Amino acid sequence: MLRMLKERLEAGASAEEEVSALFSKINKSRLNAYNVLSEEAALERAREFDRSPWGGLLAGIPIAIKSSISTKGIETNCSSRILSGYIPPYDATVIERLKEEGAIIIGKTNMDEFAMGTSTETSCFGPTKNPWDADRVPGGSSGGSAAAVAAGEAPCALGSDTGGSIRCPASFCGIVGLKPTYGLVSRYGLVSYANSLEQIGPLTLSVEDAALVLDVIAGHDPRDSTSARSEGGYFARIEGGVDGLTLGVPQEYFGEGVDPLVEKAVWDAISKLEGLGASWKKVSLPHTRYALAAYYIIAMSEASSNLARFDGLRYGLRLGADQDWHTTFSNIRAAGFGPEVKRRILLGTYALSAGYYGRYYLKALKVRTLIRQDFERALSAGGADLLVTPTMPFPAFRIGERIEDPLSLYMADVFTVPINLAGVPAISVPCGFADGLPIGLQIIGRHFDEAAVLRAAKAYEGATPYHEAVPKEVV
Amino acid sequence: MAEKDVIIGLEVHVQLNKLNSKLFCGCSTEYHDSPPNTHTCPVCLGLPGTLPVVNRRAVEYAIRVALALNCAIQGETLFYRKNYYYPDLPKAFQITQYDFPLGLGGSILIKGEDGEEKRIRITRVHMEEDPGRLVHAGTIDRAKYSMVDYNRCGMALLEVVTEPDLRSPKEARSFLDKLRNILEYLDVFDGNLEGAMRIDSNISLVGGERAEVKNISSHKGVEKALAYEITRQRSARRRGVAQVQETRHYDELRGITVTIRTKEEAHDYRYFPEPDLVPMRIADWVPRVEAELPELPDAKRARFVAEYGIADDHAKSLTSEIRVANFYEVVAERAPARLAAAWIADVLKGELNYRDVTIERFSPDQMVVILDLIEAGKITEKGAVEVIRTILDGPGETTEADPAAIVAAKGLSRVEDDAVVAAVRAAVEESSQAVADYRAGNEKAINFIVGVVMKKTRGRADPGEANRLVREALEGAGRA
Q1: Which 8-state DSSP code applies to residue A37?
Q2: Which residues in chain A have Cβ-Cβ distances shorter than 8 Å to B42?
Q3: Please, what is the Cα angle at B342 between B322 and B179, to 5 degrees?
Q4: The A426-434 sheet, strands edge to edge
Q5: Which residues of B are less than 8 Å from A311 in CB distance?
Q6: Which residue of B has its CA nearest to A353?
Q7: What ipTM does this complex have?
Q8: pLDDT along chain B (480 residues), means of 10
């Protein structure tokens, strides 16, 4: 896919034409995938490329960026009113790397406000629609990125994944989404929701594309103390199949609460992988049932601190006349944050309060250790090489169906959040349809073993047609 | 002022202002002469998406201080977030330390209220980032608006917390002087820069509630604020006014403290480990930092006594400021060590303090020349003091003034012996009554004659020398 576009551009196709074709699609679209477009700058850069093409892994390739990733000169609002008009004076490290490799940024995609959501419905710009069924959510929180890629409004996109925010919308929109190992990709410039959990990653039409984008964005960054060295070369090592690999199938990820059609599609996928030479066995991740609680406590606690800086004093939303600072900050925060963000700030503040810290936050950290150990045990030498599960327990739900019931929305993250708690890499690839709605297969690997995850995903993709299906909302 | 029922503990915020860059970003620390908000970057402004990266040099400096304060360096140290809203805090949390601070359980020696050495225990030493600075349009309690300057934001601070071992405002000041002295010895801190040290003082009377007087930057201010607090708390107790645990602000102009908030309004800072930073194993750094630790004041003082044979009082005075100690050592290499100690400790320091200037205004070369002149008997002590004053009060670069030229210009050369002898002769002749009294056994009568000599030489004769010559003249005359 990206490879074909690259080849076209190398053969002399006009980047300007590619970019303007995208914008005419975007401008006609009713998906609401973007909330900021960088049309002029993107066209200008494309024209420059046409005049004197540059090299690079993504030379001339347009890319959409989630609104939580800082882009110098382009509004970065996290789909929140409180950051309306905020234009960062600096590029996130991943943006610098994309630019160094020749990519063209076309705009910022819609998302759940501050990445807090599973449906992109908490955006202050309204929900993004699922290209497979415009009455349904695209998943979240990187729903704009996923919908744009699925609908052909961007050839690839970046998202961020704190508890499933790349994999969930990839699954709901029938595309590929990779959450790298915690530390593989620099978080410098990603507006923090829950620092200890999140990673930036690619949303693409193919596994190969995900590997290519990962090659560009992965690697140590001196500006992020939690970033690690990358062995790189993911694209180059993508072939090789699953022959001889052992897949672990965690029993806790099947059964109650899982749509039978989803469950069937995943079992079919496991059979397919078996047919490609892998073996599989049941494994157990016994602390899975505590994962959601631990995840939400940690994420909300960190969020309550991260989001405290938004006070309107230096950037973002301002309201009429200022009063004393305390009142002014309160008024701006009351007007600037949506209800889900407020809920999480309140819960997180509570969880960190004197007297509750030990009962909630510290306990959640202990659970997190147990969950990481579950994964390490299941993926230890002699155990499984990879784990396979459904990405989401059900396909895309209707817009408005769950938004009034936060708990049922939180429950939707049950198969994605343990991966963030453990810090391991995971990919979602299309593995079938339920009543016309895409289903995602989640493949989970060992820490920093993205190579194995991508290889297996690529082998599966090569043996199945699902990634080639085109949604009906494509104009 | 030593009162047994006074309990004082200090929290001292020390800016590591000799670092080149801030604690978590690359911004320069030399903002003191710059316009507001010109030494900032996305990181220290806490812009969305930015992350802190620890300045390793700052950690080294912090270890240096903790070692010098005799703290145990922790094997692994961790940063926390202290969450609170304030306009000078752009992230709405301060990155600081909480559990697992850098250093625990130290102590330093100060001169106690009774004049004896006293050990003040140090609870902990930890690192944190400095917030920005609010500039109020007026006083803090009456300003219509305030402005914020983030130049200072993100500067590396050390917080040094003492046990409640101090018993008087004077002891508190003595502790602060000693701490500053140590910090300057370590070359991590310049106490002359604005906001270099800020002190929160906890003070209570035995059995009473504690008041915290926050954010005073001068040692003298701390002493005064504490003295005020003792009076206030005593008077409240006497009048039976209920006291509450509270935070107070020291109003330097009015010389009083005013309440800011009571315990009921106290913050819950919701500390939790900073997820953007990883724990640091600092145990491995300690041997290297320890090996590079310079000689500290107490050790230097002992060495001065042993090496130069000077009085302990002089050694203490000379080592109470690293720059004075260094000055002394340069001079003592080229002049008699004891004479140098006396002149620098007793005279020069006094003249500097009187003018509120530092020793950089005087050069060791100048001091050596003056000591040479004294040694050779070419100027009197009085003349030497005059030379020092003239240099310090001179225009332009005071260190360039030539002491010998001043002696010549001001006619400070000790009067030649002949002139003194002549003056003695004349004085003896004129003072027949005093001569008679002396001969009658009134030893004190000689002072009158010496006085006449001094008058005749307009003070340029050495009084001791004049005394000797008068005595000789009288005894010679007696024999004649």
Answers
A1: E
A2: 88-90
A3: 25
A4: A34-37, A104-109, A62-66, A156-161, A199-204, A176-179, A426-434, A437-444, A386-390, A246-250, A279-283
A5: 85, 87, 92
A6: B270
A7: 0.96
A8: 84 97 97 95 98 97 97 96 96 97 96 90 98 86 87 97 96 96 95 92 94 94 96 94 90 90 80 96 94 94 96 94 95 95 95 92 94 88 91 86 88 74 85 86 87 85 83 63
Per the document, the length of chain A is 475
Contacts of A310 in chain B (CB under 8 A): 48
Domain boundaries, chain B: 6-288, 295-409, 417-479
The per-residue pLDDT for range B280-295, each reduced to its tens digit, is 999 999 999 999 999 9
Helix (H) or strand (E) holding B250: strand B246-251
Q: Do A304 and B270 touch (CB under 8 A)?
A: yes
Q: Where in B278-421 does DSSP place strands (E)? A: 280-281
Contact predicate A430/A466, CB 8 Å:
yes
Which has the closest alpha carbon to A457: A173, A169, A239?
A239
Strands (E), B42-145: 72-73, 76-77, 80-83, 93-96, 103-111, 117-129, 133-136
**Yes or no, beta carbons of A353 and B90 under 8 Å apart:** no
CA separation, residue B327 to residues B309, B317, B318, B340, B389 (Å): 17, 12, 9, 10, 18
Which domains are delineated in chain A?
A: 2-243+388-468 (3.90.1300.10)
| CB contact (8 A) between residue A349 and residue B91 | no
Active-site position among A80, A141, A171, A227: A141
Distances (CA, A) of B460 to B407, B420, B448, B473: 12, 9, 17, 19
Nearest by CB to B270, which of A196, A310, A352? A352
Beta bridge partners of A63: A105
Other C-beta atoms closer than 10 Å to the C-beta of B20 total: 12
What spatial distance separates the first Cα and last Cα of chain A, rounded to whole Å? 19
B363-389: per-residue pLDDT in tens?
Answer: 999 999 999 999 888 888 888 999 999
Task: Tell which residue, A283, A258, A78, has the closest CA to residue A162.
Answer: A78
Is-contact B384 B352, C-beta < 8 A? no
Q: Which fold has domain B417-479?
A: Arc Repressor Mutant, subunit A (1.10.10)
| CA B291 from centroid of its chain's CA atoms | 26
**Is position A353 annotated as part of the catalytic site?**
no
